[in-house]
């Protein structure tokens, strides 16, 4: 018995979406810029299978789902192999390639990467380097990104270079988000909700937690507050 395609296709899309979400979570997550070519191809393949499952109601759903599962498991097994074996890692993921070493361009390395000088200069400009003479070393990473080391005399001066001591600057703690107090964060830093309410009222003129979009406390004790629907010019800080 045939199911109405206007009912079956949305159902297939829903199930394919849920399984695709599950498989993606199993495989872990990386930023697109950090994906290797292999991971990129795997992602396209799984997405293509999901799309085919959605739009071809004449094909059985089960085998397609099995195919998605296999394409999900294989990268996991490959990842374990890459983790345990250095030779397999080099074959599957490749190796970083030095294209500028000690200020000298390696034309052969560029050719192996199928990259010309115009492309190299473009990538350097994206890193705010307009003079190739400023570069000490440049490496093509496995994900296609270019890592650049400037010549030491061109590096910005740091407080350590000037023997200047600095205060510790850790990550801020989010205490309120979308009008809700995150009480476990308050407990982690040994503060109370009453302290937070008083701080918001006396320093920022906030009477209701629901007014707060986000509130963060930095390691120096400064409370940053952003209010919902407030005029940017009048927002407290």
Automatic annotation (TrEMBL):
Q: Give any Gene Ontology cellular component.
A: plasma membrane
Database matches in InterPro entries: DUF421, UPF0702_alpha/beta_dom_sf
Q: Which domain of life is it from?
A: Bacteria
The protein's topology relative to the membrane is:
Multi-pass membrane protein
Tell me, in one coarse class, where this protein mainly resides: membrane
Q: Which residues cross the membrane?
A: 6-23, 35-53, 65-83
Q: Where in the cell is it found?
A: Cell membrane
Output the Gene3D superfamilies linked to this UniProt entry.
bsu07140 like domains
Q: Which UniProt keywords apply?
A: Cell membrane, Membrane, Transmembrane, Transmembrane helix
Looking at the record, the residues that make up the YetF C-terminal domain are 84-217
Recorded hits in Pfam families, A to Z, give: DUF421
User: Which family does the similarity line name?
Assistant: Belongs to the UPF0702 family.
Q: Know the name of this protein?
A: Putative membrane protein
Q: Which organism is it from?
A: Desulfoscipio gibsoniae DSM 7213
